[in-house]
Design a protein that fits this description.
The chain contains 11 helices and 14 strands. The protein is α+β, with helices and mostly antiparallel strands and about 350 residues long. It has one domain: DD-peptidase/beta-lactamase superfamily (Beta-lactamase). Strand 3 and strand 4 form a beta hairpin.
Length: about 350
C-alpha cells in the first residue's frame, strides 16, 4: 500500500474504547428488531432511583409531571425528539449485542425505515445459519466512526486457527527479529494455517506475554492455554484486530509480514471481498461434529475499504459451510456501504 495512503488513514482512525467503560446510562429502544440506543436521565428520590426523560418533574405525590403543565411558574416546554434529531451514538464495541444491533453516528428517526431494510437483509443471512442448525456471532466495526453492526458478539466459540493471526501480530511487535529469522515459519502459519509452524512459534516464545498483551487491551477472556488455542467472542476479537490495524498502519510495521495476511487459506472475508479491497484476515476451522466445542468455521480481519476501513469478525459452528459465511460477509459489507452514506 502506498505510504501516503497509509499516512492519510492513520490520521482518520478512531481509537477503540477500553472495555467496560460507559459515559452515560442508556436505555435501548427496539424498532423493527434493531436496538437503537437512546439516552435517559436518572434522578434519585428518597425511596430509590426513578428514571425520567428530559423535561419531566416529580410532583408532590411522586408522579412525573411535564414541566409546562403544573404550577404558577411555567418552565421551558418538554424537549421532544423530532425526525431530524440525531439518535445518541454508542460505539459498537460498547453496545449491547443480545440482539442484532446497528449503531451509527448521525442517524435520525428519518433513517429508521432504511435501517429496518438493512436489518432485514442481515437477519435473512443469520436465519440461513439457523435453518441448517448452526449458530453465529459477529461484529463489524467501522474504524473511522466507531459504528457498526453486531449480533451475539459476546457468544463464545473455540478459536481454532483464527488465533494465529493476532498471535503473529503480537510476536513481530514484541520480538521484531522474528520477522526476519522466522519469516518462513510465519508465512506458513498465516498463509496455510500450518499447525506445525504455529507449534514452532509458540513453543519458542510461549503465550504468557501474548495473554498479557490481550489483557492490556481489555480482552481478559482471550487467554491461550497449554493447548495453544483459546475461546473467543466477536467483541474481544474485534478489539485485537483493531490494535492490529494500528500496527499495520504504523511506521514500525513490518510490511512483509503484514502482506502475509492477504489471501490466507479458507478466509470467507478474503474470498468474498478480496477482489474489491485489500483484505488482511485469518480464518480458523475444525470439525468434530455439530454440537461439540471443537466444531467451528471462523474468520476475522480488516477490510481496507477506501476511506472507510473496518474490522470484521465472524464466528460460527458451521464447519465447512463456507457458502453461509460468504453470504453473511457480503451482506454485512453492503450494510456497511449503506451506513457510510449517512
Amino acid at each position: 500500500m502506498d505510504k501516503h495512503v497509509i499516512e492519510e488513514r492513520r490520521e482518520k482512525v478512531v481509537k477503540y474504547p477500553k472495555r467496560g467503560r460507559q459515559s452515560r446510562v442508556r436505555a435501548h429502544v427496539r424498532k423493527g428488531g434493531v436496538l437503537l440506543l437512546i439516552s435517559m436521565v436518572f434522578i434519585c428520590a428518597a425511596d430509590g432511583c426513578v428514571g425520567r426523560t428530559a423535561g419531566e418533574e416529580q410532583g408532590a405525590d411522586g408522579s412525573l409531571q411535564g414541566v409546562s403543565g403544573y404550577g404558577d411558574e411555567a418552565s421551558e416546554p418538554a424537549a421532544q425528539i423530532t425526525d431530524t434529531d440525531e439518535i445518541p451514538f454508542v460505539n459498537i464495541l460498547e453496545a449491547d449485542s443480545a440482539e442484532l444491533t446497528i449503531t451509527w453516528d448521525g442517524m435520525t428517526a428519518n433513517n429508521l425505515s432504511e435501517i429496518e431494510t438493512i436489518e432485514a437483509e442481515i437477519a435473512t443471512a443469520v436465519d440461513a445459519f439457523s435453518a441448517e442448525g448452526y449458530s453465529t456471532g459477529f461484529l463489524l466495526y467501522d474504524l473511522n466512526s466507531g459504528g457498526g453492526v453486531s449480533y451475539h458478539a459476546d457468544e463464545t466459540y473455540y478459536s481454532a486457527s483464527t488465533i494465529k493471526g493476532p498471535y503473529v501480530a503480537w510476536l513481530v511487535q514484541a520480538h521484531p527479529e522474528t520477522a526476519d529469522t522466522l519469516y518462513g515459519t510465519i508465512e506458513n502459519t498465516l498463509q496455510w494455517s500450518s499447525n506445525e509452524d504455529y507449534e514452532r512459534l509458540i513453543t519458542s516464545y510461549g503465550y504468557t506475554e501474548f495473554n498479557s498483551w490481550a489483557d492490556g487491551l481489555g480482552c481478559q477472556n482471550i487467554a491461550i492455554t497449554d493447548e495453544w488455542y483459546t475461546s473467543v467472542n466477536a467483541r474481544d476479537f474485534a478489539v485485537l484486530w483493531s490494535s492490529m490495524y494500528d500496527y499495520f498502519l504504523s511506521e514500525t510495521c513490518n510490511t512483509a509480514v503484514r502482506d502475509l495476511y492477504s489471501g490466507t487459506l479458507s478466509s470467507a472475508i478474503y474470498e468474498t471481498l478480496g477482489g474489491q479491497y485489500i483484505v488482511y484476515s485469518k480464518a480458523g476451522w475444525i470439525g468434530e461434529g455439530l454440537g461439540t466445542y471443537y466444531n467451528v468455521q471462523n474468520d476475522a480481519g480488516i477490510v481496507m475499504k477506501g476511506e472507510d476501513p473496518y474490522v470484521l469478525v465472524v464466528l460460527s459452528d458451521a464447519y465447512g459451510q463456507m457458502d453461509l459465511l460468504d453470504h453473511l460477509v457480503a451482506v454485512l459489507d453492503m450494510a456497511h456501504t449503506s451506513l457510510t452514506e449517512y
